[in-house]
Amino acid sequence: MSARLECLQGDIAKIGTQHLAGMTKRESPDVVFLSPPCKGFSGLLSEKKSRTHKYRALNELVLQGLFLTLETFRKSPPTLVLVENVPR
Fold first, then answer.
1. How many Å apart are CA 44 and CA 67, to the nearest integer?
2. Using alpha carbons only, what angle is made at residue 19 by residues 74 and 66, rounded to the nearest 5 degrees?
3. Is the pTM here over 0.70, yes or no?
4. How far apart are the C-alpha atoms of 84 and 82, rounded to whole Å?
């Protein structure tokens, strides 16, 4: 059995479902790993600063990534979706 490892790295705001489907040759991946910016979720910022527009927009990238993945592979979703983030 051979393993095929490919990675797509880019700006989630610039990647649409057609682009993502094309990158995978329309095959649903077994595993999707998302690592969105997590500074707004971490304890590194004060509560007040973490609620500013800048950090709320960064935090939304988690949802955008999940939505893009599940929408693109709606008929055959990935077996596993991993989201790396930090506790808050």
1. 27
2. 45
3. yes
4. 6
